[in-house]
Amino acid sequence: MSDAEARKSRDEAYWAKPMDQFHVGEVPAEAVNLNVEGRRVAAMAGGFGRMFQVTYKIRLDGADVTPQDVVRVWKERFASFWPRKNKFFGSTQPIAPGDVALLNVKTGGVKTSTGILVLYADDESFSFMTPEGHMFNGMITFSAFTDQGGVTNAQVQGLIRAQDPMYEVGMMLGGKGAEDRMWLHVLKQLAAYFGVEARATVQRVVVDRKRQWEHWRNIKKNAAMRSGLHMAGAPIRALRKPFTRHG
Amino acid sequence: MTQGTLNLDVRQAGNASILDVQGDITAASEQTLMDAYTQASGAKSIILNFSGLEYMNSGGIGLLVTLLVRANRQKQKLLAFGLTEHYKQIFELTRLDEAITIHDSEQDAVASA
To answer: B1, A125 in Cβ contact below 8 A?
Structure first.
C-alpha cells in the first residue's frame, strides 16, 4: 500500500462519513426518541453562550493498562459507565465513527431527549458532536494518555458553548454542576472497572467570553423545552389513545 | 494513533498572513499553531494553507475552533485553501466551513482576504 493509500484508508477509518441529518436506528421501547431524527449537526463554531474548555481527568494509578486498553474498553462499554438516571442508547457494537446514539438525560426535572454523532474514533480517543437543540454546540472528546509519571490517565474534554439563551441561564443555575457530576461519575466508574479507586479532577477554562447573540433563535429547537412539552402532553395523549384510529 | 509533528511557516500576501501547514494537526500542535498565529496576528486576514496537511484528528479540529475564536476577537477573517476532498467533507460535516471560508487556490483566498 502506498503512503497516499494508507493515509486515505486511515482518514476513512477514523472519521464519520458526510451526512446532512441525524438518523436514529432502532431504539429500545423505553427510550424517548425526540429531537434527533432529521436534525442537522450543531455547527462546531455556532451556539450562543460563552465557550468553555472543560477537562475531566482521572489517573489510573496502579492499573497495568495502556491508553489503547482504556479506550477499547470505554468504546465497548460506554453506556455502562453512565449514572443510572441518564441513558445512552447506542449501538450494541463498540463506539465507531458515524454512529448516532440517542440520549435521555435528566435536566432540571425534565427527561430531555437528545443525541450525539460519533465524529471521530481512533485507538486513543473518540469524539462526539451534537444535534441542533442539544444543550451545547461543540465537541466532547474521550481519550487516554500516559502522563510524565508513566501512569495512564483517562480524560473527558469538552470544547462547548450553550446552544441558546435558555441553556446558558441553565448552565449558570446549576447546569455546570450537573455536567461535572455526570463526567466525574463516568470517570470514577471507568477507573473502578480497572480496579482503581480514585477521584477525577475538573479544570474549566473560558475560551471565549463573548456571547453570540446572532444565534439566540436556536431556542426554537431547544430539546429540553420540547421534551418538557412532550412530557406535559402525555396525559392528553393517553386519554385520546382509545379514540385514535389505527390502520 | 501515533501523532506526527507540525511545521508552520508564516508569510505575507497583501493584507493577509498565510500559514503554510506541513504535517499533522492534532491536540499536540497547540503551541506551534498559536505561535504561528501570534507571528501573523497583525494581518487583516489569516489564511491557512492546508496543501501540506498529512493528517488531522478531532483534536486538530478543536484547535482550529480555538484559532477561530482568537481571530474573531481581533476582527480578522479566517480563510483556508488546499484541503483534500476528505477534509473539505469534514469541514462541511462539522459546519466549520460556515466560519472558515474554503477556497480552491491561494489566489482565490488572497483575493477574498
So the answer is: yes
Residues of A in contact with B54 (CB under 8 A): 7
Nearest-5° Cα angle at B38, B37 to B40? 60
Record the cell numbers describing residue A109, joined without a space: 426535572
pTM: 0.91
d(CA A56, CA A158): 9
**By CA distance, what is A67's nearest residue in B?**
B1
Q: Does domain A28-208 have CATH number 3.30.530.20?
A: yes
Q: pLDDT tens, position by position, for chain A (247 residues)?
A: 777 777 777 788 999 999 999 999 888 888 988 899 999 999 999 999 999 999 999 999 999 999 999 999 999 999 999 999 999 999 889 999 999 999 999 877 788 999 999 999 999 999 999 999 999 999 999 999 999 999 999 999 999 999 999 999 999 998 899 999 999 999 999 999 999 999 999 999 999 999 999 999 999 999 888 888 887 887 777 777 777 766 5
Q: Which three cell numbers stand for residue A241?
A: 389513545
Tell me which chain A residue has its CA closest to the CA of residue B59: A141
Q: Is A13 on the interface with B (CB under 8 A)?
A: no
* Separation CA A132–CA A43 (nearest Å): 8
User: What whole-number distance in Å separates Cα of residue A42 and Cα of residue A218?
Assistant: 10
Residue-number span of the structural domain to which B70 is assigned: 6-112
Distance CA A109, CA A137 (A): 22
SS3 B17: strand
Sign of CA dihedral A85, A91, A93, A96: negative
Task: Look up the ipTM and state it.
Answer: 0.90
Distance CA B93, CA B96 (A): 8
| CATH number of the domain residue B19 falls in | 3.30.750.24
